[in-house]
């Protein structure tokens, strides 16, 4: 989200064979991706708090790419740092914030595997409040 010092991009995929999905499954997946994007956008300020802390200590820029699993009931059941160029403490803070998130449940029997990069840039960061 520009203006917060964090740029967003994302991808999400259900486990299973995506090539054999029906139109309904594709529609459901599109709705799930939109829900994920909206939820992350609504909670980006909690991620920004981790970065603000990091600016006070390290004044660094970088990227944290998380992989997380969301159960069909919407709970985040596992979060892993896939790659990280930020101080470890910032990555742990972001990881813990995502772990506390809850998504809307869905009807599919598969879990959702989400990969999401958070990019932090000092020049776009507003002053601390």
Structure description:
There is one protein chain. With 129 residues, this protein is an alpha+beta fold. It has a single domain, classed as TonB (TolA/TonB C-terminal domain). It has 3 helices and 5 strands. It has helices at 23-42, 44-57, 88-99, and strands at 6-8, 11-14, 62-70, 76-84, 112-120. Strands 1, 2, 3, 4 and 5 form a 5-stranded antiparallel beta sheet that branches. Helix 2 packs antiparallel against helix 3. The chain is elongated, with a radius of gyration of 16 Å.
Give the gist of this structure.
The protein is built from three helices and five strands. With 129 residues, the chain is an alpha+beta fold. The protein has one domain (6-124): TolA/TonB C-terminal domain (2-Layer Sandwich), CATH 3.30.2420.10.
How would the blueprint of this fold be written?
Layout: E1 6-8, E2 11-14, H1 23-42, H2 44-57, E3 62-70, E4 76-84, H3 88-99, E5 112-120
Antiparallel strand pairs: 1-5, 2-5, 3-4, 3-5
Characteristics:
single chain; 129 residues; alpha+beta; TolA/TonB C-terminal domain; 5-stranded antiparallel sheet; 3 helices; 36% helix; 26% strand; elongated
Class in CATH?
Alpha Beta
Q: State the secondary-structure class.
A: alpha+beta
CATH architecture: 2-Layer Sandwich
Distance N to C terminus: 18 Å
Return Rg in Å.
Answer: 16 Å
Please work out how many helical segments DSSP would assign. Answer: 3
The sequence of SSEs as H and E is: EEHHEEHE
Name the helicity range.
25-40%
Largest sheet: 5 strands, antiparallel
Work out the count of structural domains: 1
Give me the count of strands: 5
Question: What number is the mean pLDDT?
Answer: 77
β-sheet strand percentage:
25-35%
Low-pLDDT stretches: 1-20
CATH-defined fold name: TolA/TonB C-terminal domain
Task: Assign an overall shape.
Answer: elongated
Query: By CATH's scheme, which homologous superfamily applies?
Result: TonB
């Amino acid at each position: 989200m520009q203006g917060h010092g964090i740029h967003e991009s994302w991808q999400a995929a259900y486990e299973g064979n995506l090539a054999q999905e029906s139109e309904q499954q594709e529609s459901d997946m599109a709705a799930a991706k939109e829900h994920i994007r909206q939820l992350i956008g609504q909670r980006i300020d909690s991620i920004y708090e981790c970065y603000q802390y990091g600016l006070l200590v390290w004044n660094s820029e970088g990227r944290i790419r998380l992989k997380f699993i969301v159960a069909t009931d919407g709970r985040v059941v596992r979060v892993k740092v896939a790659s990280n160029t930020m101080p470890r403490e910032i990555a742990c803070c972001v990881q813990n914030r995502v772990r506390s998130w809850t998504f809307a449940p869905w009807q599919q029997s598969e879990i959702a595997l989400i990969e999401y990069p958070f990019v932090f840039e000092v020049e776009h960061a507003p002053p601390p409040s």
